[in-house]
Amino acid sequence: MTANEDQEMELEALRSIYEGDECFKELSPVSFQFRVGDLEDSKAFILDVMWPETYPETAPQVSLDAFFNNRISPDTKQLILSKLEEQVEVNLGTAMMYTLFEWAKENQEALMENHRPVVTAVTLTSSSEMTTTASTAKKKDKKEQLTKAQKRRIISRTDNKGELPRGWNWVDVIKHLSRTGGKDDD
Q: Are 56 and 96 in contact (CB under 8 A)?
C-alpha cells in the first residue's frame, strides 16, 4: 500500500472511532487535535498532530502549541513531547494515531505529575489603560437593573399614569422638618 492509501484507511478508522467524541477534532484530512482530560481538569492538554506526505513511514509532527496548553510549563510540555516521541518510534511504519491518543489518555497522570500551572501577568500600556477607562465609563452609564419585587412595589405605588399619589413622601418631609427645626417665631 502507498502512504496515501494508509492515510485514507487510518483517517476512515479515526472518523468511525471518534465520531461524536468532543475530545477529537479533525482540522483537515492530515491534521488533528486530541484533548487528553476534561475541559475543567487543570492537567488536561491538547495534542496537535499533523501527518507529513510519507506518513506512516515517517513520524507525524506532534506539538502542544494550542492556546489551551498555555497554562502548562515548558518543562512539562517537553516531557510530554519526549514521551510521545518514544511511542512514535515504537510504532513507526504502522497506523499509530489511535495508539498515541489512547496511550496519552492512559498515562495522563504520569505525564502531568510535575505540572505547575503557569500564571501569566498582563501589563497595561497607555492605550489599554484608555480602553479600560472608557469601558468603566460605559459601565457607569448603564441603568440599574431592578428585581421583579422592586418593579412590583413601584407599580403598586403608582397610578395608571405612572405618577405617585399626592403625599406619598410626606412622612419624609415631616422627618426632615423635625430634625432641622422650623422657623423660629421669636
A: yes
- Under a CB-based contact definition with an 8 Å cutoff, are residues 49 and 60 in contact? yes
Q: Rounded to two decimals, what is the model's pTM?
A: 0.56
CA atoms within 13 A on the CB side of 142: 9
Q: How confident is the model at residue 8 (pLDDT cuts 50, 70, 90)?
A: confident
pLDDT digits (tens, 9 = 90+) for 75-91: 888 888 888 888 888 88
Q: Which of 12, 11, 68 is nearest to 35 (CA)?
A: 68
Q: Is 6 left (phi over 0), alpha (psi -120 to 50) or beta?
A: alpha
How far does Cα 177 stand from its chain's mean position?
Answer: 58
CB burial of residue 101 (10 Å; 0-12, 13-18, 19+): buried
Task: Check if the beta carbon of residue 115 is closer than 8 Å to that of residue 72.
Answer: yes
